[in-house]
Design goal:
The protein contains 5 helices and no strands. By secondary structure, it is an all-alpha fold.
């Protein structure tokens, strides 16, 4: 049984730990909870504000989980989706920069 308490930040941290432990199912479950809670709070995910940020960061974290467990192909696809979700965002946005860097690194390893 999985119990998550606190904020979306706590769920993302729990997902990282589970990914490092090799538990892909629990990690992805935690991140899906973040994405679902964002959609439930506001209906559609708005293009700005904390709801959007939680949803977009969860997408980035999903990519990172796949990378952590060694699924490079899935990680590449998920990083591409995360980058697309930040289209038009400030180029210095830390998660956007990290997603671009990780995507480039994974593609160079292929």
């Amino acid at each position: 049984e999985i119990k998550l308490f606190g904020t979306s930040h706590h769920a993302r941290l729990a997902a990282r730990v589970w990914a490092w432990q090799g538990n892909l199912e629990q990690a992805l479950f935690a991140l899906q909870l973040v994405k679902n809670s964002v959609q439930l709070r506001g209906g559609e995910v708005p293009a700005y504000g904390s709801f959007f940020a939680d949803h977009a960061i969860a997408g980035f974290e999903v990519a990172r989980v796949y990378e952590t467990v060694g699924d490079k192909a899935e990680a590449i696809g998920r990083y591409e989706v995360a980058i697309t979700s930040w289209e038009g965002a400030n180029a210095d946005l830390p998660y956007l920069k990290m997603a671009r860097e990780r995507l480039a690194a994974l593609k160079s390893e292929s």
